[in-house]
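Illustration: peptidylprolyl isomerase.
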Amino acid sequence: MEEEARKLLEEGISKKLVSPGKGEPPIFPDGTKVVFHYLTRLCDGTVLDDSRTMGGRSKPMELILGKKFKLAVWERVVISMRKGEVAEFTCETQHTSLYPLVSQSLRNISAGKDPLEGQRHCCGIAQIHSHHSLGHKDLDQLQASPQPLVFCIELLEVLIPGSFQLDVWAMSDTEKLQLVPQIHEEGNLLFKQGQIKEATEKYYNGIACLKNLQMKEHHGDEAWVKMDLMITPLLLNFCQCKLLQGQYYEVIEHCSSLVFKYEDNVKAFYKRAKAHAAVWNQTEARADFAKVLELDPSLGPSVAKELRAMEDRIRSKEKEEKGRYKGLFDHNAPPATATTG
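Result:
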């Protein structure tokens, strides 16, 4: 291990052992999955990120070696460790210049956001040399003035290729595309079993996977259109789940994006109509239900039922409000009597 530490030092990486691991040093062929906790700090001790607390929960990092992860130094240092080992690595600037982008993605993920949010319109190298904000003051400062960083790593697991199922992010584009129908079917099964929250997550994962692939294609090209047609039923199912969860404005937003592209999508109009009705948008609901009947007259009985339900709710609401304000302007009511203490 001393020889390994010497090699690291020659590469601009200083290793300090905090706690030794157990067993022999593992072998790390390409395709090995490593799981580790990390704490990143500046050389003055300022903490930037901690996987044990990021997003209010403890979630270790998972890497598949040989997949050209953006922060290559993490792969380099991990293969110098034993399972269970804790070590600090002080890495020169040539190894850390892309950390702001990696950190931004990890923070987005921990907050439930798209990991690529804020990285849509230029590549990583271009962002490093631009004034593009990453949405975090500390990362903007680090991006503007790259410097050495200290990574405290605890290696938790080393899984050899074939001993685990690949996560979506670690798959090739072809593997991701082949996985989507399976994700869709799993979502449908969960929905039928009444597990709406779990089904929602499955549909979301399928959409996110396709959106990620779609970004690599030119808008309107054959491959882009093919993926968009795969996204549409997933998004409609996602909206159905959101309807059941009472997330009506989200349904309106997603269905509006669908009917903007596909003016004959009767399911999108139908779901949007139900969402509008739920939030008392009578005019919009009636317009969407009328469009549903225009596109598919056979849905007349269903539309009539929804309209009756909406009208019943409106009458009930008006009656409730009338009762609430009854007597407020009743001139026959006895005048208020002033009292003194």
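Reading the tokens back as a structure: Strands lie at 13-19, 33-42, 47-50, 61-64, 86-91, 149-159.
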